[in-house]
Amino acid sequence: MSGSPSSTPPPPSSKTTYVKVACHCGLNEFRAGFPTDALPISNDLCHCSACRHSSGQMAVYHVNVVSLLCADADEPFHVDGSDGQCISPNGDGDLIPYRTSENGVRYSCSACSAQLIFHSIGKLTEGGEREGAYWCVAAGALERTEGIVQPGYHIYIEDTLDGGLADHLKSIGHLKLPRYRLQPGSEVLPLGWKAPHDQTKKQPEGDDIETLHFACHCKTLRFKITRPNAQSTLPHAAFPDLLYPYDITHLAKLRNSGDVKWWLRPLNASEPTKYFAGHCACTYCRLTSGFEIQSWVYVPRGNILDMDGQPLTLQEAEEDELSEVQEAMKKLGVARPGASSESQTEAAAAPLGTRMPGLRQYISSPGRYRESCHKCGATAFAWQAGRPDLICVAVALVDETQDGARAESWLDWCLTRVGFTEQAVSPMTVEGLTAGLRAAKEEKELGKSVDDTTTIVVTTDSSTPVDTIAEKDRTSVVLSLVEEVVKA
C-alpha cells in the first residue's frame, strides 16, 4: 500500500456506525466510525512489498474510517500528539508508529505488535500544509466485519511476482475480486500471472548453498532457511489444524503417535525438498496481527539461520539439542550448511541461547509465543514451548525476487483447508479463500486422484520416537545424524 494511494475518505454521512477495535492484549481498544449510508465499506487488499514486509501478512486490508472514539467514552481517540511522528503522552493507547513512506504511518501495539491503524498524513502543498489526509483501521482487529466492511479488489499484484495470495483468494461470495497490477484502474492481471523469469529465481550472492531469504520492511529482522536435511527430521510435533481440524478430531490422532514428519514435503519422501505452508484464521493470529488471514510455513529451527549462518534462537537456554549437533559437527570438522569458515569460528566463541536481535516477544497464551520486529512491527515467528524446534515462519517476509511471494519451489501449500475456519471473524472471506484453494488444487493436481494434504495415514515407521531417543545415548544419535549429513 505504501501510502495507500487507492484509499479515499468515505463520503460524509449524517449517521455513523461504530465498531470496536482491539488488539490481542487489550492494551489498545477504541471504536472505529463508518458512515452508515455507505455500509459495507469496500476497500483494497494490498499486496505491495511495503505492506507485506511491514506486517508479515500476504495481503493487508485497511478500511477507511470517519472517526476514532475511545472504547468507553464518546471522546476522540488520540493516536498520538504529533501527527504520526512519535509516541506522545497525549495518545490514548500505547501504539508505536512506523513510516513506510513519506506520507504513510502505521501504528502497532507496543506489547502484542498488532497493526491497528494506518494514517495517510496527506501530501505537502506549496504552502507547507498537508491535504488529503485520512485514517484507516486494520479490518482483522474489528469486533465484527459482516455488513461493515467488504474486500473489493486486489492491488499491487505486480510486487508479488507470482500473484501471491490473490491466486488463492479469487472471490468472496458472488464477488470476483479484480487483480490490478498497481492501483485501481491499472492493468488487470489474469489468474496465474507470473513475472518474467529473469525477475525471479535469483539466488542471493555469497551463499554457499541454496537458501531462501526473509526480511521485515525495516531490515531489522533478516534470516534465511535451508532446504530440508537430516536434522529436519529431529522435531516431533502434533498434527496442525490444517491437517486435522481440532474441533472434530480425536486428541489421540492429533498427538501424532506415529511420529509422521508432516512438515516435510513431499510427504514420506526419502529426500524432501519443501516445507508445509498454509493459511490460518484463528483468533490468536488475527488479533496479534490485525488482519484476518495469517500465512505460515513450518520450518525446523535448525534450518533457520541468521545472515551469518547461525541457527535461530528464540529462547534463552544454556544447552539444547541443536548445540549438541553443532558440537558433533565441530568434532568431525563438518561445516554447517550456509555458514562461512569465519562464522564457524565465531560460533564456537559465541554464547549459547542468544536471541535473534530485534525481536519483540509476546506470550499469546501459556507456552505459546509470537515474535515480531520491535521497530516496524512485522510478524515473524510463532512457536510453542512444547514444540520449540518446529517454528511457524511468516511467509510474507520472503524475498519475492527469489521465487515469488508464494515461494512454491520451496513451500508446499495446503490447498484443502484454512486453519481454524470456525474462528474466522468473516466467514465469507474464509469461505472464499477455501474455495480458491480447492480450485487451485484441482488445477495443480489435474490428472491426479488425491492431494497429500487430504489424508494422512499415521503408521509406525522406522523413525525413532523422540521419547525413545531421550532414553538412548544422545551422543551416538547426534553423531549418526552428522554422518547422514556428510553422506548427503
From TrEMBL:
In alphabetical order, the GO MF annotations are: carbon-sulfur lyase activity; metal ion binding
Q: Where is the CENP-V/GFA domain?
A: 20-158
Instruction: List the keywords (alphabetical).
Output: Lyase, Metal-binding, Zinc
Q: Which segments cross the bilayer? A: none
Matching entries from Pfam families are given as:
GFA
* InterPro entries hit by this protein: CENP-V/GFA, Mss4-like_sf
Name the domain of life.
Answer: Eukaryota
Gene3D superfamilies reported in the protein's UniProt record: glutathione-dependent formaldehyde- activating enzyme (gfa)
The similarity annotation says:
Belongs to the Gfa family.
Name of the molecule in the record:
CENP-V/GFA domain-containing protein
- The organism of origin for this protein: Candolleomyces eurysporus
